[in-house]
């Protein structure tokens, strides 16, 4: 599994299409994105990470950016999203951060 992450609207799906050599329609069959939202309220993040790692590509949008929300539920949701990303990165064959459309491989290799 290739784990792709980065800020909102940074070009993560375009990079995924380039890696897989596919269009957006095929990407929808081979990848899952916005996984940070799935962590919200989920108790067993290990099981979720295991389930998601069955996909060829898993895409997460970075949340927070250092801003700590006043609302407790929002703080917990961001923490869970971060913990899920750590679990996904551990399971990934490759982890790629995308910023301004530029992919940077931080784990493994893209073949």
The secondary-structure class comes to alpha/beta
What letter string, H or E per element, gives the SSE order? EHHEHEHEE
Poorly predicted runs are none
Question: How far from one another are the termini?
Answer: 12 Å
Q: How many DSSP E strands? A: 5
Q: How are the strands of the largest sheet arranged? A: 2-3-1-4-5
Rg, Cα atoms, Å: 14 Å
Q: Classify the beta-strand content into a percent band.
A: 15-25%
Question: How many H/I helical runs?
Answer: 4
Describe it for me?
By secondary structure, this protein is an alpha/beta fold. It has helices spanning 12-20, 24-30, 45-52, 72-91, and strands at residues 2-6, 31-32, 57-61, 94-99, 102-107. The chain has a 5-stranded mixed β-sheet with strand order 2-3-1-4-5, sandwiched between helices. Helix 3 (45-52) links the parallel strand 2 (31-32) and strand 3. Helix 3 (45-52) crosses helix 4. The longest helix is centred in the C-terminal third of the chain and has 20 residues, at 72-91. The two termini are 12 Å apart. 30% of the residues are buried. The mean pLDDT is 95.
Task: List the topology elements.
Elements: E1 2-6, H1 12-20, H2 24-30, E2 31-32, H3 45-52, E3 57-61, H4 72-91, E4 94-99, E5 102-107
Parallel strand pairs: 1-3, 1-4, 2-3
Antiparallel strand pairs: 4-5
Helix pairs in contact: 3-4
